[in-house]
UniProtKB/TrEMBL annotation, chains A, B, C, D:
Active site: E74 (proton acceptor)
Protein name stated in the entry: Thymidine kinase
Single GO cellular component term: cytosol
Its EC number(s): 2.7.1.21
GO terms of biological process kind: DNA biosynthetic process; thymidine metabolic process
Tagged with keyword Zinc: no
GO molecular function, one term: ATP binding
Alphabetically ordered keywords of this record: ATP-binding, DNA synthesis, Kinase, Nucleotide-binding, Transferase
Superkingdom in the source lineage: Bacteria
Catalysed reactions listed for this entry: thymidine + ATP = dTMP + ADP + H(+)
Top enzyme category: transferase
Family under the similarity heading: Belongs to the thymidine kinase family.
Length: 173, 173, 173, 173
């Protein structure tokens, strides 16, 4: 369910590494395969990384980091408190923190972590993809395996769900 | 307490009007002078406009609008439900809606309306201003008339308060 | 002939001045009224400023400036050599330089100064306005007083000319 | 010599293809391997594509295209006339055209094609990478195999040259 954000994240990590600099990568513990966190991109890129969950204290974790940059995938699952930790970290320890995620869930409701990131971030950047109708996709929907839209349910459901990115007009139709 | 967002809003309205097109302008009912809503800019621009409060139903209000564009100032005071109305309006009635506001309050906490706007908006644009230290200001603080920082209190307090825009580092210091 | 860029420039100057900081403002010597350079905005703002012409050496001029920021209006009339001076200035003397101008002339041809700015600038920002058709205006046309389009002539003609901002589709039609 | 622009281009193509839509991809004829155009990314992605050279007439070529999007890599080698063809194409045939390239050469001088693109494009987007010093890289330098900087020579030299992206301060030092 993405526009290439994991591709972009892995490219940024690659740029730093090519310059001889370390990066600290994290993904959500919801994205584990065989017990290991994995950032993977549908275009074929993949990297094993540490995971975070709601108990992770980023301020403590990054206090003495040597990383030139912190990159967090699936950042919509951060808690607002963790977003605040990362924000303090960026400004008090002076380490760039880049968080990649989606803004709203399949009902168009905010992820609390995404809302917190959008409110505090110094720079906001959009990774664009298209809706089937050709317009810019800004939202997403949950479907059955047969492509039928599901309008109600839990905010987070990864394993058995299929997501599709859509524009706002198609979302409301 | 702004970086020129009211100036920018009034300039956009002016551009539309110069092209012979009407715009629908609103500000929060908290910004009334002598019972009339006023959008004013410290650089010297000023325009009387209708106000909205939490009971305003934008979807109904704009259903039959002739306006070429809807412009809302002090949009941090919108409710999340109103943001949803405006979003549906933009995409189902096809009228551009531009909302101008600040992201976080004097404690660094989100305004619910701003969080909702940031999560749903098709385009996000930043109006930049500077902190006294010279860095980009992304947050704001509340002070006494003597310039002393106030760290606790109600989220919304307009009349007797003084605000100053600061960068995140100065915010945390 | 603008989308509000002079408004935006004067607002930035105002923000710096309100923070107790000086700015160095310039406009082209083509924009003099009674021998004095003037930055003015159709919405009603106005400020007298020094002018530059093609003989101005910005690197020498700004070497010992106390200004916290350099703001240049009608920057399409800079020479590519002046753009290079300003670029060196920004990076070797560490003073922010913001240039405001239009990209192409009434034939859709680049202004040499604008092309040089777009190629070297660290940050590019678009000030948006609309075409009469409602789309985003990215180009401009020259017309007679009666509104008839003029397709040939000198690149620079200020006094007796009328300009209108249009989208690319209307430009080519 | 890139920040991931080929990665980004191939990701956009992938997004369109996943939505069941064709894209028209091109790279410069300077980027042929064994007689075939190749877009490749240091992170490991690769795709064979048609090439363009200075004799290509894009307006004729794309007049009857079924492609949902045109993607051009190494777009700094376009001629200004080709940029104009692509611009007309985008606005008269209504097909999105995305061009990926670098702005300036190893001497800080514009590529004529890049200057033309920057002047006419409807949307400008920056793909960021970092200088060895940690700042944002906006320029590039040519070096010997031993890493020694070369300051003079032809604008275009691909085979035997090594390039490195640098920030403007390091460029001028």
């Amino acid at each position: 369910m993405n526009a290439g954000k994991s591709t972009y994240l892995l490219q940024v990590a690659h740029n730093y590494n090519e310059n001889g600099r370390d990066v600290a990568l994290f993904t959500s513990s919801l994205y584990m395969q065989d017990g290991v966190g994995v950032i993977s991109s549908r275009i074929g890129l993949k990297r094993e990384v540490p995971t975070y969950d709601e108990s992770t204290d980023f301020f403590a974790l990054l206090e003495q980091t040597d990383a030139a940059c912190v990159l967090i995938d699936e950042a919509q699952f951060l808690t607002p408190a963790q977003v605040r930790q990362l924000h303090r970290c960026a400004h008090l320890h002076n380490v760039p923190v880049m968080c990649f995620g989606i803004r709203s869930d399949f009902r168009g409701e905010p992820f609390p972590g995404s809302a917190a990131l959008l409110v505090l971030a110094d720079h906001l950047e959009e990774i664009k993809t298209i809706c089937r109708c050709g317009k810019k996709a800004t939202m997403n929907i949950r479907t059955t395996a047969q492509g039928e839209r599901i309008r109600e349910g839990e905010q987070i459901q990864i394993e058995s769900s299929i997501y599709r990115q859509v524009c706002a007009r198609c979302f409301y139709d």
